[in-house]
Amino acid sequence: MSAPDGGAVRPADVAGTARRRGPYAKSAERRRAIVDAAFDVFASRGYRGGSFREVAERVGMSQTSLLHYFPSKEDLLVAVLARRDDVEPEPDPDEVRCRAGEGARGRAARFALSIEAQAEANVGIPGVIELYAVLSGEAVTADHPGREYFVERFENLRRDYVEELTALRELGVLRDGVDPVRAAASIVALWDGIQLQWLFDRDAVDMAAALRDYLSLILRLPEH
Amino acid sequence: MSAPDGGAVRPADVAGTARRRGPYAKSAERRRAIVDAAFDVFASRGYRGGSFREVAERVGMSQTSLLHYFPSKEDLLVAVLARRDDVEPEPDPDEVRCRAGEGARGRAARFALSIEAQAEANVGIPGVIELYAVLSGEAVTADHPGREYFVERFENLRRDYVEELTALRELGVLRDGVDPVRAAASIVALWDGIQLQWLFDRDAVDMAAALRDYLSLILRLPEH
């Protein structure tokens, strides 16, 4: 890593823009631009097809500069996955109006529809889903740079779902005998597992339908 | 791979035992011994901790000889996973008698108990479960040597479960509205996904309970 910096922070930037806007803001902005570019590259090319080189080219940086922001490919890929977590697709408002309706059952339906919408959006970014499958598998091994990300991601997802399922139980729209803690883990598990099968054979499974079926089993949804 | 063979097939074997029993039987036996040793090594040490060297030592072979049977670490690891598929743990007969009972509901309960028994057995072999998680993730990428194994494994598992769920539906013990094809994929998915979470945090999830919950949602089990 002793090669001269090839483009990340040019002297002019440091003297001009960066000073006016603060070096931290500048660095954060560049970091975001790298992650955006990496998202696009890996979304279209997948885990093996995507390369550091192509990401560097897209943001007009040398690979050496890129390594200043992300010391390893794994670090960059984890940032790509974290970015996906931040951009939750929203369900179609017309569908929500039509299928969810009002009241407690409406809230249960909105919860189900938001999960379905994300599952459907994932069909459009197979490269990112592939990235997720490879990294989540690798990261179970000790000392993997992505381990902490996945531990936290699972904790956060389970906690969010436990909260919503507990609220739905209080509203009387969680089916009898369903445990919010175990059901929360099961939603996440089913989702990860069905994505894995989908990556091996896209015609064999329907990701959104598998989640919809499960949610219909545990929730009292509006009757149509 | 030009190093002399260090122990796999000694001249004495070729002239004696191997000729009497046929070279194919000899080779198959040695292959099995390697996979058995690799299963033990990776079951106790996990994906990163296990090594070709240790497997070779256990079977009294050089690493070069080992590579004659399994050209890459991935090939050997896939064979370890395939071996696990062959050894399905059976549920405790007393528990089956007590919880399953007779008739159609009894058959549904036996199906559920056999899945639970396997999930519980997996708790005892975290190294193999780790291996499965790493390889199934890696194998989604094109040209991975394990890809074909996973494609087939998922096809076989889904087909077996579809058959059993269809039979249970005919016996009237599949709940209304449950689709055997989607439920079969969901059992496999839930299982893979809950194992993944368990590898990141063994106290956070109960693998057997997640599967039991799901099977209770889709099957009419005996009432106790």
From TrEMBL, chains A, B:
Location of region: Disordered: 1-26
Pfam family, one: TetR_C_6
Record keywords: DNA-binding, Repressor, Transcription, Transcription regulation
Organism superkingdom: Bacteria
Domain HTH tetR-type: 28-88
GO molecular function terms listed in the Swiss-Prot or TrEMBL record: DNA-binding transcription factor activity; transcription cis-regulatory region binding
Residue ranges for the DNA-binding region feature of this UniProt entry: 51-70
PROSITE patterns linked: HTH_TETR_2
Keyword Oxidoreductase: no
Protein name per UniProt: TetR/AcrR family transcriptional regulator
Organism phylogeny: Bacteria, Bacillati, Actinomycetota, Actinomycetes, Micrococcales
